[in-house]
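I am still learning, so can you show me any protein sequence you like together with the matching C-alpha cells, please?
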Amino acid sequence: MNALPTSARPLTVTDQLDRRVTLPFTPQRIISLVPSQTELLFDLGLGDRVVGVTKFCIYPPTARRSASVIGGTKNFDFAKIKATQPDLIIGNKEENYQEGIAQLEPHFPVWLSDITTLPEALDMIRRVGDLTGKAHLAEPLATEIKQSFDRLRLAAGQRPPLAAYFIWRKPYMVAASGTFIDDMLRRAGFRNAFAGLGRYPEVTPEQLAEAAPEHIFLSSEPYPFGEKHRIDFQELCPAANVQVVDGELFSWYGSRLRLSAEYFQRLRTGLGVE
C-alpha cells in the first residue's frame, strides 16, 4: 500500500450495516463493487483513486479503462483484487454476495452500504464523502438530490395510481416492498401493485391480472425489456398502460439520483398522471 504522510491518522468509521471499519489513512486505492457507487466516487472527484471496478460499472464510460475490472458484483476475481492492493473496498449488502465479502474482509477494509430508501441513499453519499475526504462535495450533492425530490409535484388528496414494476423475465419478477425501487415508485407518485409481497418475488400472469395495475413498468435493467415485451404485457393486461422505463433512474442510489426526480415528473406527465 502507498503510505500517506505520518501526520495522517487512522480513521474508524461505521458502515450502513453498523460494522466498524478501520482505515489506516484516508483511502488512496479504492475498489468499488457496485456500479452506482462507482459513479458516485468519480463524481466526487475520486477517479484517480479508483483502482478496481466491476464489469457492470458503465459510468463514467472511462471507468473500466482507467481501473482494473475485478469481475462482477456477485463473482469477484480475488487474484485481481489482491493485485490492485486496495486500502478500501466499497460494496453493498444486496448487490454483492455474502460469501465473497466474507473472503475479502480478513484482508482489506470493506465498507458496505444497505439502501432501501432515499434517506438511506443520501446517508450513503454523505458517509462515502466523509471516509474519502470529500465531505465538502458529498454534502451539497446529497442536498441537491433531496431538494429535487422535494420539488416533485404530486397530486394532493388523490389516491396514487397502481403500478407494477418488472425487473426480470423467465420467470417474471417484480420489485415489491422493502426495496429501493418500491420507495422510488412511491416518491414518483405510484402505489406498488405488489406491495403485499416482499423484495423481488416471482409472479405469474394470473397474479398480474388479479392485481390489475393501471400501469406496468418494464425496467431497462437488470433484464433489458424492450418493445416486444411491452406488447406481450399489453396482451396480458389490455387495460393497463405498459411502458419501458429507465431502470437506472429507479434503482441506482448514487449520484445518478440527481436525474431521477425530473425523470419521474416527465414520466407522470407523459402518462397523464397529474
Notes: The radius of gyration is 20 Å. The chain has two domains: 11-149, 162-271.
